[in-house]
Amino acid sequence: MAMSMTMQRRAVKGVGNIWLLIMVLWTAIPFYWMVATSLKYDREIYGFDATLFPQQPTLANYATIFYDTPYLLFLRNSIIVAVGSTLLSMIIACLGAYAIARLKFPGRALLARGLVFTYLVPTSLLFIPMFAMMSALHLTDTLHGLTIAYLGFDVPFCTWLLMGYFYSIPVELEEAGLVDGCNRVGVLLRIVLPLALPALVVVTFFSFTHAWNEFLYAHVFTSSDRVRTITTGLANFVTEDVFFWGPLMASTVVSALPPVLMFLLLQRWVVQGLTLGGVKG
Amino acid sequence: MVTSAPTSIRLPSPPSVDVREKRFANFLLRDATLGYLFLAPALLVIVGLVAYPFANAIVMTFQEKTAGAPGRFIGLANYRELLANEAFLRTVFNTAVYTGFGVGLKFFFGLSMALVLNQERRWNNLFRSFLLIPWAIPTVISALNWRWIYDDASGLINNVLVRLNLVEETISWLSDPNLAMISVIVVVIWQGTPFFTMSFLAGLQAIPKELYEAAEIDGASVVQQFRYITLPRLQPIFITAIMLSAILTSASIQFVYILTNGGPADRTQIFPTLAYNLALGGAQRLGMGATVSLFFFPLLVVLIIFLTRRMLRERED
Description:
With about 280 residues, chain A is an all-alpha fold. Helix content of chain A is about 75%, strand content about 0%. Chain A has one domain (about 70-275): MetI-like fold, CATH 1.10.3720.
């Protein structure tokens, strides 16, 4: 027997709310455990007296990572690499995207296709020859080497995203600029880029977080703490069998904050950009 | 007012320096020149950091090569050795299971989450933001966090199980051969679901409300509406998201590397970790590692070409 529409709606709503509750818990519990562990003393973390809720909350683990481990150094390295690769890829991508979107020259359709193709090639296919190449060029174990390596993903991806936005800017605006005596470079700087500001924000978000989150290249191309970024630095804490979960969880909390805050702040634009390009699925 | 055209006729003279400079400037500002000039840095990056290493990887599969030394051509020996190797065959199987279940379950959870978040509800924006956070967290961080959740002695799961007297001995989630793969896939789902949620939610919001209203007047049930309106409308997004996720899931090394590093007894070994372990974990067999990475590249190429086409077409619409 068919239910009435109102009953169906109510049923769907009820099931939806229950499922939402389950999904919220499923998402929240790992976060809770991470934060809770970071606020506990060791006696509450291990053994028979381990607790589910911190009884005596402490910031001792946070003090440990900043004073007794190279964590601050990892943080600095991550910032340098992320800012460097973001700036470089931004400049290169703006120029390239504008050329493909607006300038007429033979081969540009092919290049557009090549860009998508390039950023879809996973780094796990490239890291071995890249390692050989970086070693030969003496770029391993340097921050600038890592910064350059990240361009291999950032540039095609950002160019692809920006291209889409540049297409959406009315070409008449640029023609007006050209008539008024601006040249192409002037048009790009004074008309297109200001209009594409939301796109530039999204592109900044993606290349920054990419560098911040990247693991494989960072892990393969570095071998000393001096140049390790957060991801490889923390992974190394574990593989070296130095199991100190309190400080480790404190450092994961701190490391997750910048990308999460950026995401929450820019969410609307990021989701839009993601549906255009798609990363990290 | 109309001014008369100048009547004086100048004799052609050799171009002055000034004119030549201007011509050069014009040449520089022509679309084609400027186009190639603007694209040069991007092209350099693509060739140097993707195309060249990629070509190099293909060459390496025919070589015996260690880091720092030039490779020695050995024909198809790497391929032959892999096909005879049981660990490799297990890796093929594992990667298929890992990718298939990983992507399939992410799809299921992502779609259900998107449908729920598309309902009208107070605080919905807040729920949406919160449910998407795992996507923004660095993958390594999630992996480390879950490794601690799974911990044999003091992890959250065992802690709770023991407290509730559900088990007599703690469970080794990551080192039990029968549980390791499932445990790793759970983490993949936790991290990867939001990507599907975001994609599908955008698709759901683009479906005109009138369609549902019309269907309701015609007496279509909620299930029928889902079957005949929602699913067909989302189908293009389904395909793009699944292909993208299949490429990224099968190629990402972090979860397995940090949670189990391929163990126990290769039960969770997938292509990226096997390639890494062969090329950089001790023996330094770069050629062998490259061969593992590229073994299923033909399959990947088909996926990538298909996806490239779709994405370009979607862009044009």
